Amino acid sequence: MAVAKKRTLFSNIQNIEKVQKQREFMHTQTVVKQKGTLFSEPSSNAQQQRERAAELMFEKYKAPALFLAKNAVLTSFASGRATSLVVDCGGGSTTVAPVHDGYVLQKAVVSSPIGGEFLTDCLMKSLESKGIAYSFRRKEIHPGEFQTVDLDFPNTSENYKFYSQSAYSNIPTTSYELPDGQTIEIGADRFKIPDVLFNPSLAQVSIPGMESFAEIALSVRGLPQMVIKSINECDVDIRRELFSSILLTGGTASMQKLKERLEKDLLEMWFSKSE
Length: 275
Description:
With about 280 residues, the chain is of the alpha/beta class. The protein is built from eleven helices and nine strands. The protein has a domain at about 15-115 and about 220-275: 2-Layer Sandwich (Nucleotidyltransferase, domain 5), CATH 3.30.420.40.
């Protein structure tokens, strides 16, 4: 089955047919005609995808019943809550969805294209940039006089890169063994890459090869900003309950100390806003 790059029920509806054929072949499920089917879907799934899935299950596989459940609702129910704020850090994207009394509040769903796959690409480009050897030809500069003008603007820095890199300069390296047996040393990347989840602009600034991300970087929110925006889009009466019932899910959410970092940033943003 092809991996879905986009957050839809299935990026290619034909994959549903492949799943059903595999189920029938492996005899791991009761025949679809005798039992109902439940599909989990992203909170922002398109209506067209939902209709196509229903058409396929009812008309081709003769399913007696079909239920499309939102991922956020299933996550909330799995934790024993009917109301919560579900932060789904997946492979293809990150989604913040408020759930109230078992229903997703669609108007307050906030999504970002930054997920585990994006962070993996950032890490690969960063490692590749350090392993490529360049040869430079020495060129002679003809003697002469050159006039330069130093520009000095108050409260500005010469280059943001210098400051973003300085925070990671003293981080010790750690050895990692790859599946092929090769051992590599990773230092600042262990913290710099996950930081992109909280500050997307770091991708284009501090990671070589990610300059193309600049086109959408300004419109992409960091994880704490996504949470605050989603809560603010909800009714005032349920904001406190949502803020105290944040659930992290998804493979990317399993990174060490992500929960603590998100909690710290949210508290700082919330109190600075109230001052």
